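Morning, I've got a small favour to ask if you have a moment. You're getting the sequence in one-letter code plus the fold written as tokens. Thanks so much in advance, here it is:

===
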Amino acid sequence: MYPRFGPLSGSLGVAEYSAAILGVSGAQLLPEEATFFAQVQPVGFILFARNIETPNQVRALTSALRDAIGRDAPIFIDQEGGRVQRLRAPHWREWDPPLEFAERAGANAERAMYLRALLIGAEHKALGIDGNCAPLADIARPQTHPFLRNRCYGDQLETVVPRARAVADGLLAAGVHPVLKHIPGHGLGTVDSHLDLPRVAAGADMLTQQDFAVFKALNDLGWGMTAHLVYEVIDPDLPATLSAKMMNVIRDQIGFGGLLMTDDLSMEALPGPIDARAARARAAGCDVILHCNGDLTEMRAVVDQAGALGSKGAARLERAIHACPLPQDLDIAGAEADLQLLLTGMGDV
């Protein structure tokens, strides 16, 4: 067991960690990856489907990652349900897309989302994974691009906020860090930001009263992820991830005080080469760069430009880490039974 923070093999402190969360190329940690991670000391890691085979293999990989850097760094995964879930059958539970799941649960959606997140979190902890890139607090619209729409929790502020809070609470009860995304709102995007840059032409009042308001209601969470969108009324030139003006909105208007990571830096919504993206995101105000594809050459460029976490980022990281409680003694069978009752309409709201 490694300490969460404190001295490592030398005099490195939290503020000197590389301001990056990095991916891995495959199912096993390669020697050259282990050497690189030991040298640069990223804040943490993220796993994808290419890293997942069996429970024993995943446990070995998460242990190897922490062994490489000599500390209990957070390891994240995307496990939303539906299309976006890296842990799949036969070893792990399959989940409906969140929007369909919430609609199925109806009046019981909030409790059902909590139980779902609790079960997902318990699966994570058994593998050495302690962060999930959820809840997703974007408000679904009729025009929301299909890559995102059924990943949303609802189409009204009044339903999205409690459902997102329930997901965060369920993950926390399992001892897993929730990552709030996509700040400050992706629901008005009509193109897939993995492939192109969405532009939002909505006025300031609508954004403040709807999309931004969801994240303001959840601004106490410890981790957040930016949206790769242009909000034309605030900054017509740069996507939020690269925009100092949008960072001011996130920090001041929305009031998010947690550790802010970029969405994946490899997505085509962002302009320029990968190293320039990292530098611009950090200059704009992102605490941490998220780089997911496991390409070691790209990771070297990202880390070089991301620099050290720094004192403000270190303080946010420490708050985020310690805001996540140790996992409770979970009644998994009871949670599964309760969830089934809720989904069949037989349980209490």
